[in-house]
Amino acid sequence: MPSQRSIVPFLLALLSCFAVQFPSQVSASPPIDLPVLRTYVEVPALALSPDGSKIAAVVEVQNFTTDKYDEHIDVIDCATKAKQTVAPVMHQVTDIAWSPRGDSIAFLAAKGETIEAFVVPAAGGDVRQLTHAPRGVDQFAWRPDGTAIAYDTPDAPPNEKEIAANLDAFEVGDQDYMAEAKPTPNHIWLQPADGSEPRRLTEGTWSLPRGELIFPLPEVAPMPFFAWSPDGKSIVFARAPSPYNSDAVGTVTDVLDVDSGAIRQLTSHQRLEAGALYSPDGARVAYAYARADDPLAQTLMMIAPSGGGDGVASTLSLDIDALGARWIGPRQLVVNAFRQTRSRLFVASDDGPPSQLELGPVDPVPGTLDANASGRIAFAGSEPYSATEVYCMASTSSQPQRLTDYNAQIDARAQSDVKTITWNGPNGFAESGVLFYPPGYDAKKKYPLVLQIHGGPTEASIASWRDTDWPGLPQLIAAHGYLVFSPNYRGGDGEGNAYQVAIFNDAGDGPGRDVMAGIAAVEKLGIVDQRHIGVSGWSYGGFMTEWLITHYGVWKAAMAGAPPADAFVDYSTSDYNVLGRLYFGGSPYESAALLQAYRDQSPLTNVARVSAPTLLIHDSGDVRVPVIHSYEFFHGLKDHRVPVSFVVYPVSGHYPDDPVRSEDIYRRWVDWMDAHLNT
Fold first, then answer.
1. Interatomic CA distance for residues 303 and 277, integer angstroms
2. Closest CA to 383 of 359, 412, 356, 403
3. From CA 53, how far away is CA 301, in angstroms rounded?
4. Number of Cβ atoms within 10 Å of the Cβ of 99
5. Is the CA virtual torsion 317, 45, 225, 144 positive or negative?
6. Do you find a cis peptide bond into 9, omega within 30 degrees of 0?
7. What is the pLDDT of residues 339-349, one digit of tens each?
8. What's the Rg (C-alpha) of the chain?
9. Label partner for 151 (CA 20 to 30 A): which of 59, 192, 259, 530?
């Protein structure tokens, strides 16, 4: 159920704590529960047709019989809202794109053990497999004349024959501890649309960044790692020095001449660039770059001449962390970013001041934004009392129009009231969070409080039904009679660049003080039962949970999912491993002072201070946060006789990728709070 995205800040000067309330939802319907959450429909990707009249949307439903997420493709008319399913159920469907003429739709989907590109007529019909890449396809892009797609795929290992004969030992580099081979570079190929043999376009020991964007690259989904020029003669792409994640910091933007194979670098930057897109007229390239060349800082949307140059930072004055962008004209971009507790859209250009669009109660889902050169915009979005749907905007001056009712069953339930809470935090920061009220809330009563802390840390808590991490979870917890508080904290999105970079060499203490200040702001409302407070979170939210229970004694219950308890172990074993030095200023092996910094900022160091009954949940094959972390924390709690339950799912990934286990996590999360806060 959780989404995989990260987010950013805008600094608000506030003189006192206050709350902004959305209209209360009064309903005789039952509240959110696990059975109705089984009906939740996600829209993980969409694409606007070339003429802007239709949207092709990937529609994902939970299949509890097969324990899979089933995806199909709907084409939705922006004027009439009529929709037609044009592709049958497939799995792991992503990267959807219309052909340049608008007569077909290409997408990526699972084929056996790999991901391949497929194409289907826009009016519906037979699905045809377009690529047959032995190691699968990461991304693709239509050539502007529609005769081919470019795609990237990993190279075959140079010792493929030896591996087949079990001579498969490999020399370890900066990779996760569960790696079973040396990584090979990703390169670009050209696949003719008629299905004839593909042609390789690039080669070398360097690599396109592969798979999911991870720190420290600017995260600008759905911007790709490569894109065509409008004349089809060039491809702009991201080039990393090697296929190791640790080298992703050195990613720059290059331009490939498709006919000659010549490659040139677009800018003078030496690192921290990511997704790039040509403007509709081909005169400019938009690309993502880390502000002030700082890997912890906001992502800027740069606009540069396509002939070369660094260009201008079109979003700098907005003080936002760009999550994604699309061209809406020859000089203008529409940009998605968080501002405080909202997901917003902005217009930025290289020749004028930026502005924020008026979206009303709608929050675009990061990673789903699309637009065309005439200014029409599409995205999946959510509202405070409405789950994910597809929206379209006729122009930057029009209001979002909701086109679908995929989640009508959920919307019909009694919803939690939602407030944005703001407060003056430590170190002079203005801070914010989201408070969900139990359905039927009585202002004369006091309620137990559950913290649900976002991950990242570059994410944000959003005052919308579709929380950025956990669709429906805040409403589910609130339906059990709790106030649910999702605080933002330094290092996260939405409160400005100074707030985002303040996490440097301060992984837990500063963020922990931010969270505690947020709790104090909620307690000032006079509605919290201060004897019954629980804390929970996943990934960095799990880290924050463990940090808080090792440094503050107010908790009656805790749930930490995939928590990085030991920064020293993280540095040596995770898939981003040595990139931890960017947070701490160096390697723990460099000096006694740095080693002590890693220890001081690890919750495990103070596990003896914990008294709260704690639930730990982890995947056995998690390489982002290896399960070693939870084994260490589990034994620390157990040896100090703290009530603890440690649950491991025997699957890979940072979170189970199936509906049965996802629902089980929701159930365990709520049951743990019920067991320890209702006493």
1. 10
2. 359
3. 27
4. 20
5. negative
6. no
7. 999 999 999 99
8. 24
9. 59
- How far out from the chain centre does Cα 610 lie? 31
Alpha carbons 512 and 452: distance in angstroms, whole number: 14
pTM above 0.90, yes or no: yes
Cα dist. 648→397, 627, 631, 657, 672 in Å?
49, 8, 10, 14, 16
Strands 234-239 and 322-327: unpaired
CB 163 within 8 A of CB 178: no
When mean pLDDT is compared across 213-227, 407-421, 573-587, the lowest value belongs to 213-227
Instruction: At 427, give phi and psi (nearest 5°).
Output: 60, 25
- For residue 261 the two structure tokens come to 């194979």
The string of DSSP codes covering 569-612 is HHHHHSSSGGGGHHHHTS-TTT-HHHHHHHHHT-GGGGGGG--S
HEC assignment per residue over 405-431: CCCHHHHCCECCCEEEEEEECHHHCEE
- Flag whether pLDDT at 677 surpasses 60: yes
Q: Is the peptide bond before 222 cis (omega within 30 degrees of 0)?
A: yes
> Rounded to whole angstroms, how far apart are CA atoms 289 and 274?
7
Return the number of other C-beta atoms located less than 10 Å from residue 599's C-beta. 15
Strand order in the sheet with 186-192: 139-142, 148-154, 186-192, 199-200
Q: Do the strands 644-652 and 614-621 form a parallel or antiparallel pair, or are they unpaired?
A: parallel
- In the structure encoding, which two tokens stand for residue 573, read together? 């074993």
Do the beta carbons of residue 436 and residue 417 sit within 8 Å?
Answer: yes
Can you list the positions of beta strands (E) in 350-463? Answer: 355-356, 363-364, 370-371, 377-383, 386-393, 401-402, 418-424, 430-436, 447-453
Cis before residue 457, ω within 30 degrees of 0?
yes
CA distance 341 to 431: 10
| Position 4 confidence tier, pLDDT thresholds 50, 70, 90 | very low
pLDDT in tens, 50-67: 999 999 999 999 999 999
- Joined tokens for residue 483: 């106030």
Residue 483 pairs in a beta bridge with 449
Bridging pattern class, strands 68-77 and 483-487: unpaired
Contacts 24+ apart (CB under 8 A), 378-382: 378/46, 378/47, 378/48, 378/55, 378/78, 379/46, 379/336, 379/345, 380/43, 380/44, 380/46, 380/57, 382/464, 382/465, 382/466
Phi and psi angles of residue 402, each rounded to the nearest 5 degrees, phi first: -80, 130
- Beginning with the edge strand found earlier in the chain, give each strand of the sheet holding 42-48 in spatial order: 42-48, 54-63, 68-77, 83-90
188/154 Cα distance (integer angstroms): 9
H helix or E strand, kind and range, residue 673: helix 659-677
Domains of the chain: 410-566+602-677 (3.40.50.1820)
Alpha helices per DSSP H over 506-658: 509-523, 540-551, 567-573, 581-584, 592-600, 628-639
| DSSP class per residue in 290-353 | EGGG-TTSPEEEEEEETTS---EETTGGGT--EEEEEESSSSEEEEEEEETTEEEEEEEESSS-
Residue 501, helix vs strand vs coil? helix
487: nearest Cα among 523, 505, 511, 507: 511
Sign of the dihedral defined by the CA atoms of residues 216, 219, 225, 229, in that order: negative
The encoded tokens of residue 640 equal 């100090």
The residues facing 237 across adjacent strands are 226, 254
Distance CA 264, CA 286 (A): 16
Which residue from 657, 606, 653, 603 is spatially nearest to 625, judged by alpha carbons?
653
